[in-house]
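Q: Given only this backbone (158 positions), what sequence would you predict?
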């Protein structure tokens, strides 16, 4: 079994807490060694997922919770955003998620699901589980210490 650290946060489903999650993912990703650009991508993606959850999951006065989980692996960061507050059973969530396909009718993922296109563009893998509330599972791979394929800069190799 692959070793990883797991961090779980529960927040009120209110837009003003999106900033708290942005700061959290920034701190976690920075500690893991992600590049500045990757951290910015993570912040935008998690903001979109969180905003989607806070905007669409609950009625105005319902006062629900959003649960955010971070799986810190040696080679990647997995982020889960769930709009129904409960704790994650990680293995169960992973068995039940399926890949996000752009062909899925957007209504299936609530109106305002345009954020998912953006999340899909910014992350290495996006999976969705929507049988009870919606869980968005996003994966960002850590860059390896090799010559950058996409650009001219050479990162330091050990």
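A: Predicted residues:
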């Amino acid at each position: 079994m692959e070793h990883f650290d797991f961090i779980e946060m529960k927040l009120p489903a209110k837009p003003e807490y999106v900033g708290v999650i942005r700061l959290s993912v920034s701190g976690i990703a920075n500690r893991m060694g992600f590049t500045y650009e990757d951290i910015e991508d993570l912040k935008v993606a998690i903001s979109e997922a969180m905003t989607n959850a806070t905007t669409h999951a609950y009625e105005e006065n319902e006062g629900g919770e959003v649960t955010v989980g971070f799986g810190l692996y040696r080679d990647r960061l997995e982020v889960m955003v769930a709009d129904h507050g409960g704790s994650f059973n990680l293995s169960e969530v992973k068995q039940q998620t399926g890949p996000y396909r752009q062909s899925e009718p957007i209504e299936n993922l609530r109106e305002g699901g345009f954020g998912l296109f953006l999340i899909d563009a910014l992350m290495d893998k996006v999976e969705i589980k929507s049988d009870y509330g919606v869980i968005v599972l996003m994966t960002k791979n850590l860059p390896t210490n090799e010559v950058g394929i996409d650009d001219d800069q050479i990162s330091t190799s050990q």
